[in-house]
Structure formats: C-alpha cells, structure tokens
Amino acid sequence: MSHHLVEADNLFYTYPDGTAALQGISFRITHGQSVALVGGNGAGKSTLLLHLCGCLLPTKGTLRIGNLPVSRQTLPAIRKTVGMVFQDPDDQLFMPTVYEDAAFGPHNLGLDAQQVRPVVEEALRRTGVLHLQNRPPFRLSAGEKRRAAIASVLAMTPDILVLDEPSANLDPQARRELIDLLRSFEHTKIIATHDLDLAMDLCERTIVLEGGKVLLDGPTEAVFQNNDEVLLKARLAKPLRLQGCPVCRRKESSG
C-alpha cells in the first residue's frame, strides 16, 4: 500500500468540553490526489486536519496514513510523511529568521548542517522566499509569511501536504502566486478552505462537511454545480465562476 494513502474509517472525535466535532467520517484519498475539504465554520475541517498530522487522535474509529494507523506510537513516522501548513503563519514561524524556521524541521529529523542547507535552500527557492532567508518572519507581508510557512514544511520533504485556509488574508496577487505554488507540489494535497474558487483551481475532488459529517464527496465541479440544496445546508454558495454574470442575470429578469 502506498505511503501516500490517507484513509479514515468511521472517525469520531469529541473535545473535552463535550463538543462532537467529527461524527463517523469515512473517506479514502490515494496517491497524488488534490482534495478540498469545504464547509461552514464548525463543520469539522480544522479538527480533521489536526488528526491528519497527529495533533489530535480519534475518540473512535481509525485513520491511516499508508500502512500506519495514526497513534501516539506512530507519530514520528506520520510526521515525516504528512506536512501541515496552519491557517495562521504566526503559529508556525517562531525562529529569528526565515532560514532558521525552514531549517528547524530538518534538524529535528536528524539531518546535520551540511544535509540541511541544500534542502532548506531548495524549499526557499521553490516558494520564492530565498532572498528573504535572513529576514525575521515578523517583518514579512502576509503573502511572504504564507510562503515562508509552506517552505518550512516543504523542507521536510513530505509526501502529503495538508493546508488549513491557505488563501486567508491574502491579496489577489498573493493568492494567485499561492495557487501557482501549490500546483507545483506533485504529491497528495488536502486543503481545507472557504475559498471555493481556489478549490476549483487546485482540487479535482471535494469533500463537503457539515456538523462533523460528510455530506458530499465527488468531482469538484460536479459537487459545486449540481448540489445547491446540499451546499445551502453546509452554509456554502457556488464558487463565483459558477454563479454567472450578475449584470446578465438582471437583464434576463428584466427582459
């Protein structure tokens, strides 16, 4: 079985305060797929992502990365395979410089300084922030912080890239650069997002969550094009590109 495989089987998670965040989620993601997780606030997207990287462990059910169930015993191996980019880059960038942030993960994987430098420089180059390697993260723009956070994950050479709201707080140009960057990652991508147009740009498959359950799972365009009632239940609307021109709609209604 491929180490890129991600499989959830009847996954439940309840927070200590009693909030049932995941309620029987099942899916199977295979090597190289790009999958969007969409849903309103509180749908369970971020909770599910935190399971994928082992920050949370199931209350019930199983989650497997390749041949390994996600558990306390398997966390070191899981975190070599799964790289997570958090919603807020400030939660991820904590070292004095961009270079040191990108080098932190490889150092903790046991690489020495000579092994670390080439992988870090390649990650910084790939994300377009090599020229910022000596800058403190707090002096970067939102888009630069996002790229630096992604570089810090790519430096660990993950097989599965997991991102939580990657386009949040980005201006249009930074958002476009982010999409181009993520397209260049050829392995498995799992992206939780409210940005449904970004989901259409990057993901051939979309899973719709609501109340910790899977409402829909299928090809992205079909999910958004043909399921208005389900999207409404999940507190979503069609991507802007599928809504048609508002001027044309006004003309049609007045004609």
Name the strands of the widest sheet in spatial order.
Answer: 6-7-8-3-9-10
The appropriate CATH architecture is 3-Layer(aba) Sandwich
Instruction: Please tell me the total number of domains.
Output: 1
Between the first and last Cα atoms, what is the distance in angstroms?
A: 59 Å
Number of helices, counting only DSSP H or I runs of 4 residues or more = 10
Low-confidence stretches: none
Q: Give the DSSP E fraction (strand runs of 2 or more residues).
A: 15-25%
Share in helix: 25-40%
Dominant shape: globular
Q: On the 0-100 scale, what is the average pLDDT?
A: 91
CATH topology: Rossmann fold
Following the backbone from N to C, one meets helices and strands in this order, namely EEEHEEHEHHHEHEHEEHHH
Helix and strand content put the structural class at: alpha/beta
Rounded radius of gyration (Å)? 19 Å
CATH class: Alpha Beta
Number of E-type strands: 10
Could you describe the largest sheet, including whether it forms a barrel? 6 strands, mixed
Instruction: Write out the CATH superfamily name.
Output: P-loop containing nucleotide triphosphate hydrolases
Could you walk me through the main structural features you see in this protein, from its secondary elements to its overall organization?
With 255 residues, the chain is an alpha/beta fold. A hairpin with a 2-residue loop joins strand 9 and strand 10. It has one domain (6-88, 158-254): 3-Layer(aba) Sandwich (Rossmann fold). The mean pLDDT is 91. Strands 6-7-8-3-9-10 form a six-stranded mixed sheet, sandwiched between helices. The protein has a four-stranded antiparallel sheet with strand order 2-1-4-5, covered by helices on one side. The protein contains ten helices and ten strands.
